Automatic annotation (TrEMBL):
Pfam families: His_Phos_1. Coiled coil: none annotated. Transmembrane segments: none annotated. This is Histidine phosphatase family protein. The keyword Isomerase applies. InterPro entries: His_Pase_superF_clade-1, His_PPase_superfam, PG/BPGM_mutase_AS, PGM_Phosphatase. Keywords: Glycolysis, Isomerase. It comes from Paenibacillus germinis. CDD domains: HP_PGM_like (cd07067). The keyword Isomerase applies. SMART domains: PGAM (SM00855). SUPFAM superfamilies: Phosphoglycerate mutase-like (SSF53254). PANTHER family: BROAD-SPECIFICITY PHOSPHATASE YOR283W-RELATED, HISTIDINE PHOSPHATASE FAMILY PROTEIN-RELATED. It comes from the Bacteria.
Length: 208
């Protein structure tokens, strides 16, 4: 059996400001660091064979907190980065909604109809991420894998395991900061044990 733990990064300063991040970056907030510490404590008895993370700073910061005292390298790759949002990156969501209302509505409500001109579509993200996750599982068959990444990237991965249609990508569960999903591969079939779990939170501290 292969175990795949999928972790969203902790709350960031741009999350607090409602800024779209994509390939741009901002550091974890104080709450984000706390969320990662809570998750690290919840996973302290899990034996990870390998840890992977997006090459973005916010995921690396989260990964190092979650890793704790384990003597493991964190393997980083651009493959696990968030969707490239182009000109939206660094802008406040309300501003984007005013400047590009149709695409902004499609981004959140009709992912299959979202058609950016100079950034990634959801189909583009699928084409980047799904072959990478299949390869990861093949390379580490029978192992316990940790992957720290981003909301849309992780939603795409979980939709692949669920066989969820792209149009339904944003249906629940919501992926709060440091939420945890666990997929067990048994005879090449995915069994979802956790999906967007936040039971490690010790207070009402979700962030966005």
């Amino acid at each position: 059996m292969t175990k795949l733990y999928l972790i969203r990064h902790g709350e960031t300063t741009w999350n607090v400001e409602r800024r779209m991040q994509g390939h741009l970056d901002s550091p974890l907030s104080t709450l984000g660091e706390q969320q990662a510490s809570w998750l690290s404590n919840a996973l302290k008895n899990v034996h990870f064979d390998v840890l992977y993370a997006s090459s973005s700073g916010r995921t690396l910061q989260t990964a190092n907190i979650v890793k704790g005292s384990r003597e493991l390298a964190i393997h980083t790759s651009d493959e696990w980065k968030e969707m490239n949002l182009g000109a939206w990156e660094g802008r406040i969501s309300a501003e984007i909604a005013d400047l590009d209302p149709d695409n902004f509505h499609a981004f959140w409500n009709a992912p299959d109809l979202y058609r950016p001109t100079k950034s990634e579509s959801y189909a583009d993200l699928q084409a980047r991420v799904i072959p990478a996750i299949v390869k990861l599982l093949e390379e580490h068959a029978g192992k316990t894998i940790g992957l720290i990444s981003h909301t849309v990237t992780l939603k795409i991965i979980m939709a692949f395991f669920e066989r969820r249609a792209l149009a339904d990508l944003w249906n629940p569960p919501y992926f709060h900061p440091t939420c945890l999903s666990l997929v067990e591969m048994i005879d090449n079939e995915p069994h979802i044990r956790l999906h967007g779990d936040t039971s490690h939170f010790q207070e009402e501290a979700f962030g966005f």
